Amino acid sequence: MDAPRRLFLQHAALAAGGFVLPGAHARPPGTAYPFSLGVASGSPLPDSVVLWTRILNDPLNAAATPAVAFAVRWEVAHDQAFTRIVAKGTASALPALAHSVHVDVRGLEPARWYWYRFMLGDAVSPAGRTRTAPKPDSMPAALKLAVASCQHWEFGSYAAHRHIAAAAPDLVAFLGDYIYEWGPYQLAHPASAVRRAESFSLAEYRARYAQYKSDADLQGAHLAAPWIVTWDDHEVGNDYAGDRDERLDAGFALRRAAAYQAFYEHMPLRLVLARPGDYGGMRMYQRYDWGRLARFHVLDDRQYRATHACGPAGRGGSSSVTRACAALRDPARTMLGREQEAWLAEGFQTSKARWNLIAQQTPMAQSSQLPIAKPGDGRFWNDGWDGYPMARQRLFDALGKSGAANPLVLAGDVHTFYASDLQKDFNRPASKGNPVIATEFCGTSVTSSSRPQARTLQYLEMNRHTKYGRSDKRGFMLMDVTPEKTTTVFVGLDDVRNAQSGKATLATFEVANGKAGARQV
């Protein structure tokens, strides 16, 4: 039985037990179920949350859904049985947006959990659980946050999402690589990866999201809590930079615009476009406050970045470079773009939050691939922040100038757990003159493969500001943020290929209020 149908039948069974209103399964036999991709919520504000679904009868055959607009009903309630409805309405699912539905529900109470669902005809979607952010001037006692990234369909099951749902977080932060651009379009995770069927067109990216979102465990994680999301490279193509891809394709801007549109069509986001219909310039960076406990600065380090420094001739994409690369010292090169840099600096400057969480794609801590014994030594991957050291320095300067409290950098991308101290000069020990200015936690991948652990241990020896590294496990991070401290747990799967895999705590770190630097406990 395919995953979407199994998930629907599970919810139909709940309906029979009184957990949702009757009607979720009261449809003529053989009628296609329109909510095959589930539902989601995200982008929470104190009075609002975005609800999402997509009308799609068959995840692998978009043509099976008629190319007409649908009037989709939605409801938000205080209770799972929907006896106390607080908001409802009708939204249009348009063929031009792949029959996706985005409802920005306003007028909700702050710091409150709600249930929501969609209806089309007599079909009823699964009931999702969501919540609003706390009041701006409040100090919440705690925030439970799950952090995940990098979920290549080809490299394992989504057991991590099953464990995320079971953890019942207040919020999920997904830091990029929600899809990967290649692999056969199929509804079962394969035993091994097959590199074919790369996505280039809008239809192909839509099909890729439908494939990924058909997974029952991923749907379950979306049902459990609201998400905040950003993208990385694989939502478009491997290691692209700005308007240039690995192939140096003259038509890459069109491909990127198609990929960005498909991303919006499948995420619970508020749409911000410079011009109507211009998805190629869609703004991704966002800011969310969790009362005065936490501010999320959600970044986009792909769309506006300079091309890779000192790359090989004849292709784009990443490579490893030494300090002999003069472009590394060019102050004009940017990772975020000047407008986003200014926005981030303003967000630091105005933040009244106890904790400032910088949710972004790739590790900020320096990571040399060779020992550094003297100035000029080292070799660095130019796709990460090591390839943009002047931009990293500007970010550190803006952070220091602002006085923003307790900065925590969240990262993904490299499929490895890392806990690192961030400092202006990574080549000198931390000291009064070279203080730790922030703490970085990098999460491993949900599925995507990584380097051998023995190589990661070598990296730790060469980069002493990184206190922990684990690349042989897939999983996610769980964070407990309180006014007094933030606790980060690295959660690893026993077997990523097994959808029923167990999990284990690999390491736990604490950062105390007012004291940068992670302490393993």
Automatic annotation (TrEMBL):
User: Which PROSITE patterns does the entry link to?
Assistant: TAT (PS51318)
| Domain PhoD-like phosphatase metallophosphatase residue range list | 145-488
Outline the extent of the Phospholipase D N-terminal domain. Answer: 37-132
- One Pfam family, please name it: PhoD
Q: Which organism is it from?
A: Massilia aquatica
Q: What is this protein called?
A: Alkaline phosphatase
